[in-house]
Design a protein that fits this description.
By secondary structure, this protein is mainly alpha-helical. The protein contains six helices and no strands.
Length: about 220
């Protein structure tokens, strides 16, 4: 029946319930913007990290930072720049730790940017059901007040108000469920990227240390 369409239910709802519905629509739109943005960015960065590891495994001194893709260029540049500095009579382990630390600092800054706005998903996922529930409780309360005032308790009188109120809860779940799923997926992907990037940094540090100290050993001979 036309009176039970979503548009008609929204138009006939109480102002407070309308406000809740509009807030949930905006929250859902905001979360989907973040979801689409992070999905694209994470796919690109995952490919960059894969290439970073491949280059790190073949690093033999002649690889320039510019060969590393995307943000890994900055990570590799920090390590290669640090590798040419001298820090006294340091051991191979000390040298490697110094080089890798310089790369981890740059990586940490880039990952912080990667995680920006992800808290929007956590906020939407945790609060939307309760916001929707508030709209439902408010709508049902007003429906009962209207029923008491009219003195009629037939289904045709009760059903529209209850349906309008419950639609707020439904909208809260529609906003929250994708946000929660995406939040967990993005965090899982970021952890995987971090693990792979640290593995690549370890390869760079190990190969630079090998180049440095094997070169020194050959000179001492």
């Amino acid at each position: 029946m036309p009176q039970f369409s979503i548009a008609n239910m929204f138009m006939s709802a109480d102002n407070a319930v309308k406000g809740v519905m509009l807030l949930l629509v905006l929250a859902s739109l905001a979360s989907w913007v973040v979801i689409l943005e992070k999905t694209i960015i994470l796919n690109v960065i995952s490919r960059q990290i894969w290439k970073f590891k491949r280059l790190a495994m073949g690093l033999a001194g002649e690889v320039a930072p510019g060969e590393f893709p995307g943000f890994t260029f900055l990570v590799a540049e920090a390590g290669l720049r640090e590798s040419v500095d001298h820090a006294g009579n340091e051991t191979r382990a000390d040298y490697r730790e110094r080089v890798e630390r310089s790369m981890r600092v740059v990586l940490s800054g880039r990952l912080d940017r990667l995680e920006a706005r992800v808290t929007v998903l956590a906020t939407v996922g945790s609060t939307s059901p309760f916001i929707g529930l508030f709209g439902t409780v408010w709508g049902i309360m007003n429906s009962f007040i209207g029923i008491a005032a009219s003195g009629e308790t037939t289904l045709s009188v009760v059903a529209p108000g209850i349906a309008e109120a419950l639609s707020a809860t439904a909208m809260g779940l529609v906003a929250a469920i994708p946000a929660v799923i995406a939040f967990n997926k993005i965090n899982s992907t970021v952890r995987k990227i971090t693990k792979e990037a640290l593995a690549g940094i370890g390869l760079v540090g190990n190969n630079l240390a090998r180049i440095r100290f094997e070169g020194l050993d050959s000179l001492s001979e």
